[in-house]
Design brief:
Blueprint: E1 6-10, E2 13-18, E3 21-26, E4 29-34, E5 48-51, E6 57-61, E7 68-71, E8 79-80, E9 87-91, E10 94-100, E11 106-112, E12 120-121, E13 128-129, E14 150-154, E15 157-162, E16 167-171, E17 180-183, E18 192-197, E19 201-208, E20 212-219, E21 224-228, H1 237-241, E22 246-253, E23 256-261, E24 265-269, E25 275-277, E26 287-293, E27 296-301, E28 307-311, E29 319-323, E30 327-329
Length: 337
């Protein structure tokens, strides 16, 4: 369910974090810092990777709600964040984080500065029902199984996703509180969801039972703007076969998004989700994506240390190149015991 690999690019720095290691790239070279001690293969919370614009410090966490700050150069010791949080990201010169209660429901969406000392909670809007017709029982009680609240970012804002409660909030860049929230049928334990903000609302990827996949685009009033497969048309078996094994999404710009599937990649239009192009690429596991500059993104699958550079200039076909960067060993990230 949770992201177990995250990438973050700031200027010449590229941070690549998984539960057992952090790789800090500067230019063409990288330094690997590994965790000493037992590391869970499937952490109980998302791995945390966040850095403010100046990238002097990077915050990392291995899925246990504990977050540590290390220097971007990967040489300084880790320092604990003042409080525990479920997930953490950055929005300009502020940190955005989520706290959950004992039942793993979202308790607080907060903002703080780089010190993490002064926490300011945000007001959460009441979710608007969003009926998508995909296993949705309209008028019936929604069975909920809270499992935390994790964050994701796009050029158009931050999403706060509660799969177990079927809720997603959209926080626009620099905003004092979320612009809106949606309520859909909650996901189950074996489902994986991803959500990204768009200029029109929110893009929601549902991978049901790790395989059957649907991509939905909602406005924040709950109306459905587009879907893959098209929920209003009867598709044949060949069409249905296209949408298995959802591995991730990436909002490229106001008019395009990318859907990573187990056996292919689809470039789709926004807001209607019409397929524009089918670039090469197979993604058997979930992927992490971060902007790397104008029309460029780093892509990293969760099952390996591989890195790919995606180029998506308007008017040109998408290009995907494997990146081989030398990595040297560094000091331990933290000591177990």
């Amino acid at each position: 369910m949770y992201p177990i690999r995250r990438l973050l690019a700031h200027g010449p720095w590229l941070f690549d974090f998984r539960p057992h290691r952090l790789i800090v790239f500067h230019g063409a070279e990288g330094v690997r810092r590994e965790v000493h001690g037992d590391v869970p293969a499937y952490p109980s919370a998302p791995v945390v990777l966040a850095a403010l614009d100046e990238a002097k410090d990077v915050w990392v966490g291995s899925g246990n709600r504990r977050v540590f700050s290390v220097r971007a150069g990967a040489s300084a010791p880790a320092q604990a964040f003042p409080r525990e949080c479920f997930d953490l990201t950055t929005d300009g010169d502020r940190l955005i984080g989520t706290l959950v209660d004992g039942a793993l429901e979202l308790a607080t969406l907060f903002t703080t500065d780089g010190s993490g000392q002064r926490w300011e909670p945000m007001t959460l809007p009441e979710p608007v029902p969003a009926t998508h017709g995909y296993g949705y029982s309209e008028g019936q009680p929604l069975p909920q199984s809270p499992d935390g609240a994790f964050l994701d970012t796009s050029p158009f804002g931050i999403t706060v996703l509660e799969k177990g409660r079927g809720r997603v909030y959209v926080l626009r860049p620099g905003a004092a509180q979320p612009e809106g929230a949606l309520q859909v049928e909650p996901g189950h334990e074996q489902d994986t969801w991803r959500a990204l903000a768009t200029p029109h609302g929110v893009l929601l990827l549902l991978a049901v039972n790790h395989r059957e996949t649907v991509l939905l685009h909602f406005a924040l009033d709950g109306s459905l703007l587009g879907s893959l497969p098209d929920l209003e048309e009867e598709g044949d078996d060949e069409t249905d076969e296209l949408f298995w094994g959802g591995a991730g999404i990436c909002v490229l710009d106001a008019a395009r998004a990318l859907l990573f599937l187990q056996d292919r990649t689809l470039l789709v239009s926004l807001p209607g989700l019409q397929v524009l192009e089918t670039p090469m690429g197979e993604w058997p596991h979930f992927v992490s994506v971060t902007p790397a500059g104008p029309h460029r993104w780093w892509v990293g699958p969760e099952d390996s240390d591989a890195l790919f550079m995606l180029t998506a200039e308007p008017g040109h076909s998408l290009r995907l190149h494997a990146a081989n960067r030398p990595v040297s060993p560094g000091a331990p990230l933290m000591h177990g015991g």
